[in-house]
Amino acid sequence: xxxxxxxxxxxxxxxxxxxxxxxxxxxxxxxxxxxxxxxxxxxxxxxxxxxxxxxxxxxxxxxxxxxxxxxxxxxxxxxxxxxxxxxxxxxxxxxxxxxxxxxxxxxxxxxxxxxxxxxxxxxxxxxxxxxxxxxxxxxxxxxxxxxxxxxxxxxxxxxxxxxxxxxxxxxxxxxxxxxxxxxxxxxxxxxxxxxxxxxxxxxxxxxxxxxxxxxxxxxxxxxxxxxxxxxxxxxxxxxxxxxxxxxxxxxxxxxxxxxxxxxxxxxxxxxxxxxxxxxxxxxxxxxxxxxxxxxxxxxxxxxxxxxxxxxxxxxxxxxxxxxxxxxxxxxxxxxxxxxxxxxxxxxxxxxxxxxxxxxxxxxxxxxxxxxxxxxxxxxxxxxxxxxxxxxx
Length: 392
Fold this sequence. Notes:
Elements (H helix, E strand, L loop, with lengths): L2 E3 L10 H5 L2 E3 L2 H5 L28 E4 L8 E5 L1 H9 L6 E5 L2 E5 L5 E2 L4 E5 L3 E5 L6 E8 L2 E6 L2 E3 L12 E8 L2 E11 L4 E6 L10 E12 L4 E5 L2 E7 L2 E3 L8 E5 L7 E7 L2 E3 L6 E3 L3 E7 L2 E3 L6 E3 L4 E6 L2 E3 L6 E3 L4 E6 L2 E3 L3 H6 L14 E2 L7 E4 L2 E2 L4
Parallel strand pairs: 3-5, 4-6, 5-8, 6-9, 7-10, 8-11, 9-12, 10-13, 11-14, 12-14, 13-15, 14-16, 15-17, 16-18, 16-19, 17-20, 18-21, 19-22, 20-23, 21-24, 22-25, 23-26, 24-27, 25-28, 26-29, 27-30, 28-31, 29-32, 30-33, 31-34
Antiparallel strand pairs: 1-2
């Protein structure tokens, strides 16, 4: 039987297990059993609030950033031209088109979107962050706006050319206290912090969350801190997107739901996504999180846990996922998490770090648990219908 301290998952204070210093002894009986304590309610099941193609209200006017003076030559600072194009739209908004080219952007100033505005980049358009020394920056920012769409092209951060050494909040796309935001069919990479951040503005108890946000067909890769982070939100749908190869500064997760004391994060649906090759966990849920569905995702080859749920997370449902070949357990729960369902997943060949350290194939059959880590002290947990690693 392996004994493992969950705090080695590759995170600092945002890693639940590390914060608690929890040591969990994994039980032989747990891996093969279908635990059925009490049936939890399915989160956000009353109505289908999510849509892969949400309706957003965008103004009719169309302006090209080239008309506003953007060069897209990979040398000229085009930030002012982007902002001028956006600011020239009427109050009803409109669409800013971005032809093919490499547009250098001052991420400390950011491209600041307005309500009812669509930023539509061609497939050959790339927004590249100019090197900066700031601990906080965003290539694109949507702050206190509504009915916004960001689509097409690529966003490249400055992690390889960053001048400073402090901070971890250089974002590709930063969505704060905004509603009806639709981000789709684009690539975000090489950010000093997170590829995407969706959260709130305000202090604990007074924060305005982001609501009704959809992320579809986005690839967020090779970012320094997280592929996607959540602060306080309500109703966010992430669909058919990839969060991969996060590394550089902890926590280094693919997707991290971490609102903490600022406010609740609730009604989040993660469906048909890929979380692979991240230095931390594939997916983590921490304090102040509720009503999360993780369905039909592939969570593979992350250095930490496949899925880690803890803190005051509650009413989460992990179902029909492939969770395999992760460095620590496939799914791990940490007290006082409650009302969690883990059903009909394929959770196989996890805890690979132990096998590699002991010079064994990760496919070695073992009678010890390697896929599920659930303390027996937890209540209101349902585990059923999962396929786990074969035993000798």
